[in-house]
Amino acid sequence: MSAPTTFGGVLRSGFRLIARFIKARPGGFAVAFAGSLTYAASILASSRVIGWVTDTVILDVLERGAEAAGLLWKAAAAVMAVSLAKSLGVVTRRVGAGWLQLKNRQDLRRRFVGHVLKLDMDWYNRQAVGNLISIGDADVSGSTFLLGPLPFALGATLLLIGTIVLVFILDPLLGVIAMGFIVVVVIIELRGAWVTFGLVAEIQARRGELAAAAHESFDGALTVKALGREQWETDRFTERSDRLRERLINITIVWESFKAAVQNVPAAAQIVIITFGVFRLADGLLTAGDIVSVAYLLSLLFWPIQLIGFVFFDLAASSAHWERIEAVFREQTYVRYGQTAAVDDDTGAAVSAAAVGFGYDETPVLTDVDIEIPPGRIVAVVGPTGSGKTTLAVLLARLWDPRTGAIRLDDRDLRDMAAGALPDEMAYVAQEAFLFDDTVRGNITLGVEVPDADVRRAADLANATPFVDELESGFDTQIGERGTTLSGGQRQRVALARALLRRPRLLILDDATSAVDPSVESRILHGLREADLPSTVVLVAYRASSIALSDEVLFVEDGRIVAAGPHDELLEQEPGYQRLLKAYEEDAAARAGGGA
Asked: Cα(330)–Cα(2) distance, rounded to whole angstroms?
């Protein structure tokens, strides 16, 4: 469903949104509406009580000096009764409306996150993280905001209808005047809602841009500072902030203009109706109590009429927020799963690929890739920059699916495996290790309940235990957002321990030890070879010492596997491989010389 382009479309979108939220949580709405109905009925009843008190108590005392002691008690009891009903209605309405709003907000956030996590990596590549955060926070809150005042507005609408009926019963002429003023108010409110919709939609787009810029600024703070681009980044942020500020000023002007009009119309209606009422009283068509009832009702309608207008504004604003959320929900590029279950096996997995082709856009990255990796082998993927090594690794981990061909794990197509089955057998460790704002232990287990001994064993294999034991609280040390208190090599080792804890049958290391010292990397790889892990290991590597530890090398060039075999054999037979390894060694020597 596309964004509404007419006022009728906005209203239909808003009413569908309300229906969706009410259907999701009907109990909360029923409680809130019952409270609102009680409140409206008590207001109408109180107007008649005030009229009755005027005619039977106040006028009796003023005109005939009647003994009014008994009537005073009855009047006080009637006023107390309607006041208690009104209070009960207010409390019930607010509790129900609050529950309705907060529960729908919680449901929507849960649904939004769940939906986003099901989408494939192609979709993620097209998104700005800051904009997604803005949608998940501001737009979710904004789309449910109207649920707070909605029950009150429904009660106020019933109160308006009841008021018109009551005034018509008392005097048809006053009823026509009252209805005319209400129609004017509704027209003003509807016009304001339409104008507001377009402004809110634009404001949320600007908020997304600002959030994206803020996320980039904070995430890339080290780069900005290192290159001395603080002022440039500040100017970029300021420009987007200024655009948002201008839109907010515009909507405030519009909002207050329509609000002023809505506030003044009821006051004018009250003056006109009382004036006409006095003439009707003089003609004997109304009693003083009738006029007091009408005046009292009109004075109490001042806020409800405004509230109905606010709900129209909120309806338009919530529709604009919802359009941004629904744009995400309309994305259906889910990762598809089959029914093939995971295998409970303590041996490494066999990996194969047949005629695999892939490209992130129209440009192919991999072409006609064929692989056969026996179980339990350590295979190094080697190639120049941009040759497709990382792409091959992420395809083996099924972070993307190949455009052509198939990748199999023990003769099972990865696309046929059930949701959650592949992670039970495979672990992927990227070069850029992502850590959560948690303890070292929490980052290794990721919520899995495992014995401390298993956590330490995985950390030992990743050569992480030495530095973890030196931390203030060991494995219980908080490491900050993205592991900011750790070095790059330490983060990589924690990420590797996280993968090893799961004892995967296929372990994919995408240059996952590039930030550690060569000696540490050597100990890690030797440990993996000598451990009792049930793993086939595929590692993207560039250090000759790491490559030499592998059982086989896949040499990738221009998106194709041009050679495969033992390291020594490729050195003798493949000139491109010789040149690449020589360049690696020269680079390592230059780094060592520079460090000296």
From this structure: 10
